[in-house]
Task: structure prediction
Amino acid sequence: MSPTTAMYVAQAIHGLAYGMLLFLVASGLTMIFGMMGILNLAHASFFMLSGYFCYTVITVTGNFWLALLIAPVAAGICGLLVERFLLRKVHAQGHLAELLLTVGIMLVILEAVKVGWGTESMMIKMPNGLDGLISVANMTYPIYRLFVIGLSLVVLGIMALILYKTRLGMIVRAAVSDADMVSALGINTPLVFMLVFGFGTWLAGVAGVVAAPLLTVFPGMADQIGMDAFVVVVVGGFGSLIGAFFVALFLGELNAYGIQFIPRLAPVLMFAFMAIVLAFKPMGFFGERE
Amino acid sequence: MKLRKVFFSAIVAFFCLTLLGLPQAIAFEPLKGDLATFDPNNQIFPTSGDTIKVAITDVFTGPNAFVGQSYWATLGFVAHDINTQGGILVDGKMKKIQIIKADTQGKPAVGKRAAEKACLQDKVDMFEGVAGSHVSKVLQQVAKKFKTIYVNFAAFSDSLMDVPNWNEYTFRINGTASTCGGALAYFYKDRPEKKFYICAQDYLWGHSFAKAFKTALKKYRPDAEIVGEDYHKLFLKDFAPYLEKIRASGADVIVTAAWGADNENMIKQSRQLGLKSPQNPDQYIPIASPFLDDTRPLEVIGGPAGRGLVLCSDFYLDRRRPMIKKLADIWNKQWKTWKKPYSTELYRWPGSGWFRNIIGDYWYFDIIQKAGSTKPEKVIPTWEGNTFTQFDLNIYMRPDDHQAIMERPVAEMVFPNMWDQPNNAAPGHPVWIPAKYCMPTFDDKLKGRVKK
Result:
């Protein structure tokens, strides 16, 4: 493979890796919105929180795999508690109250992180075995980024399996479509809501752990990815997992090739794309008009 | 009778000499105070009576709160040294130093309010900072409005000291885009690397630094080539697409001026992607930057992967120089007794940024000591054209535009290092670039402003 071809191929894989990471964050966000109608502005904060949990687990045990297991679960539990004790209480007040509450939660998490871990950025090393490079046809690529892609695909597979092949998934899909009807059928929808919220934050948590060795864990981490995740959800269509998946991958590639060919415009490409899509399809690609 | 006259004359002469010598006898000298009792976590300043009030106008909250935290340690160190020597004789009294925090949160509007409060309510004699040229620009206006001395330690943009931003109350100690870029280009004058890729943050500082480097490179190394130039948004997540372009360009060196998380991510990800140095394939690609003195990303990539990085800072703790070594040793000895947050590697040595702040503070206090006053009308003419010769340095305050002129260090990272840091590469002995090759820019409109 010529160096130029290698560069283009590498850019495609970089775009894929970032797109998959973005999907992990955006999928939880879009699922929560689809089912509960809550635009969870604190979603990316759970991503950051998980990054910090990951740092702590690694500092204590030195084991990345344990961190990958514990940190998302801890973030998920935080999500469950937030839904059970805060969001459920304001649910009757309407979406505006819920939206404001998520802003409050976002600020509380940010301050808690600063108090708990300080304001300095934390660095996490690549796990052993994934820190090397792989050489294929004259091109070298970091193993860890391939792992990010692989893990995201596994999570996507599990999610699809649960949503489309289990009774729980059926209930969730039904609740996304018509929560009142599901409730009328005798299903405990508040419990389902809570589980979905917890699962959504768990997904953000997985992304937080996976991103931690690539990025820097610092209090601005949530802002970094939060905005991109919102663009994915908006363009993909609120509540659409398929939309989130395709748009996340597209935006990943757009970012990589944008930097390659029109670097000066790369930072705004994502937003320009969102504006164009919304001009023609205000509900996003896969969103349904209410 | 004659004997009595001689006796009285002798007594008068003795008193006169005593009076003349008194200020010298009670003048402070750097590192002569009781520094064995200094602890940044437990600083006590006089709060009542006549004090010399200095405000730290910088970030104390948010992701970059460590910036304000570091000033608290460095200015605190200097104040503790001077206070334990009895203070400074100004306006006919021995006064001690009092430090006040003024949180800018890194935002111009907040910084303006914080600095105004420091001037109006706290009535500070001087305020210092600040990270971010956009914030510094606003603080300079506050200094002018309230006729208070402002010392810029950390805003690097050249244009800050040009007309119309310039004013007589503002002094700049730190380097600039021109000094760092110029010194770096001169450093490569006779070295084998000649293909450079600029990858800087997309705002005033990043562009100024790149421009300064390119201009100086053309002058000192005409056969060198800029093989690529990219400007990325602040706090970018993933540098991989940029780094892939850099790899394909065949660049010998990445020149950047990125700071904070961008700096950390670029270093880390360049190593993760396995970018090697074309000049030395056993080594990773050199990244040249003014902000490589943070040990955290260097620890993560590991010692060997940090070899060859190039630090073009504005100040450097060159321990080959005796007084700098003394400062470093005192600080490091005390550091071993400090608790969090000052017990971290970040504070083990008073590294380049910390050293700059310490020098700047000693210089300001030396000036008010010389002026015998904290009043701007006395401080300004005393500082203009003054040369600070402590700590084995010669720093000249250019009178017309209040910018510090000095030789600038450029150091390559080595591993193992001499800084008791077994897990990371750290700067080796620097090459000192003579001041004439790394001058801050000068706005001709200010030429001849001060006629001495």
